[in-house]
Amino acid sequence: MNLQLLTKIGYTCISIAVMVIYGLLAGGIMARIRARAYGRYGIPVWQPFLDILKNITQRSAISHGMMFYLGPVFRLTGGLGTYLFIPAVLGSAIFSNFSSAGDIFLVMYFIFLGQLGMALGAGEGGHPYSGIATARGLAQMSAFELPFALSVISLAIQYDTFSIIKIVEAQQYGVLSWTMFTNPLATIAGFIALLGMNMNAPFNIVIAPQEVPLGPPTEYPSQFLSMLQTNRGLFLAAKLTLFMNLFFGGATSIWMLFVKTFIILLANLFVSVSFPRYKPEQSIRFFLKYPTVIGILSIVFMMFK
Amino acid sequence: MKNKNDKKILENADLKPIDKDLFSNAYPETVPPLNKYMEKLANWARANSLWFLAFGTGCGAIELRPLLTSRFDIYSKGIAPRPTPRQSGVFIIGGYSSVKTLKRIIRSYEQMQNPKFVISLCSCSINGGMYFDSYNTINQIDKYIPVDVFITGCMPRPEAIMAGFDKLKERILAGKTEGANKYVENFEYYKANQKKIIKDWNMPDYNW
After folding, report:
1. Is B178 helix (H, G, I), strand (E, B) or coil?
2. Closest by alpha carbon to A22, among A237, A253, A240?
3. Is residue B7 part of a domain?
4. Phi, psi (5° rounding) for residue B137?
5. Is residue B10 domain-resident?
6. How far does A34 lie from chain B, in Å, by closest CA?
7. Of all residues in chain A, what percent carry a pLDDT higher than 90?
């Protein structure tokens, strides 16, 4: 194997490790801020790491068959695929991943892939509530994909490309060249879709631990659960990076990436602490109403520009 | 009972023949702890990330809800409720157990993964408490599942429950909480006690 390939593999490993740690830490910080909003102190910021360590060191793990094993593998594959085709930091050797080989539609495909694979695995678990939970999760996912896809189409018309690198490069001419200012309707539709994607309130019924059907992970114990929790950190970081690249001008250094994604997550949190949960049928109806209309309007405006 | 490969399997005598295929008849096995330093690390992680099963078996469960509010805030100690026994490590037997609930307690306890800990809350589960002479409740939960920490009271106040959680953490860090392995090692004893009092046993002998 030549040196270039080995270097690329090394950089990819560093990139994934940094994003997993950042994603889990950001989740912990957000939980603590949310607790403060509710008047408590909340979990320590490193609690997600402790939970993963505890689950990895469990001594037994019940499995229900081969597809049950493959469920979390699919989920982690979806998370890795989503992250590795996004240029996390523009122009950086370590963090630009495989973004020259991918485009926005490949990334959207991987967002879906993880959830579908988990659905197969959760179905083999045989838990009666796994079926309910998977149905709710997938139904909500289909609903939020609609405004997200519409805003992505609007961006594609605006920048005349599907490549994320070119979209980021077009936003490097100062703050006013960000998509947030040149195409605000697409940003609004995308932001509402991001609330659904991150499963933040009011759309968090699918993974809320107060619900018995707590999503596809209902029947997964121990090491399977630790794999799903690790993916949760990586997937969160990947979605935020994608969002930052599409709408907020991308990042030219890793610290800028941390700052911008943290601010996006904080904006999510402000909505999240203010609203109670929607039931799944309410959230699907919501996504198919105003966010879809805003997405369609953004496409129409871009076509006439 | 042993099958031809000389491995122990369960009889599952109380299941109907048509249902026997649906349930596993494998005998549970003990899992020994890891070597010294890895087990210390694992115990530290387990002590700081206690997930209890959100199954209120009796009136003691009412005292668990204030713990989640801002006055006592057990989230800051890493303790959180989980809805499914597959993912929880601590089972809090809160209060009296009627015979009907005992069947469900056993079912949930056996579905939890090794290592698992049991906290016995309130006097009813320790010595019968207020219902010691009832025909319908059990007097001592320790005869049916192994218990790690007893918290007396009727009900114990949230401060007492938090002290009980601290005691459980101490025991976990010292490596003394091998309840799951103890259950398997004394399986015949526990199962005999359970079957004596639960007359409508239509479950497998071990609820995998």
Report:
1. coil
2. A237
3. no
4. -115, 160
5. no
6. 12
7. 51
Q: Is A11 exposed, middle or buried (0-12, 13-18, 19+ CB in 10 A)?
A: middle
Residue B206, in any domain of the structure: no
User: Considering the domain boundaries, does residue B14 fall inside one?
Assistant: no
**Residue B78 lies in domain:** 20-197
The rounded distance, in Å, linking the Cα atoms of B103 and B201 is: 8
- pLDDT one-digit tens code per residue, A245-293: 999 988 889 999 999 999 999 999 999 999 988 888 899 999 999 999 9
Q: Is the pLDDT of residue B5 over 90?
A: no
- CATH number for the domain spanning B100: value is 3.40.50.12280
Note the pLDDT tens digit of each residue in B94-128: 889 999 999 999 999 999 998 999 999 989 999 98
Q: Count of domains in chain B?
A: 1
Contact B83 A211 (CB under 8 A): yes
Whole-number Å distance between alpha carbons of B90 and A110: 36
CA distance A265 to B191: 51
Q: How far is CA A15 from CA A9, A68, A132, A217, in A?
A: 10, 29, 36, 26
Put simply, the answer to whether A43 touches B49 (Cβ < 8 Å) is: no
User: CB–CB of A59 and B87 under 8 A?
Assistant: no
Residue in this structure with the two tokens 């009980």, named with its chain if needed:
B164
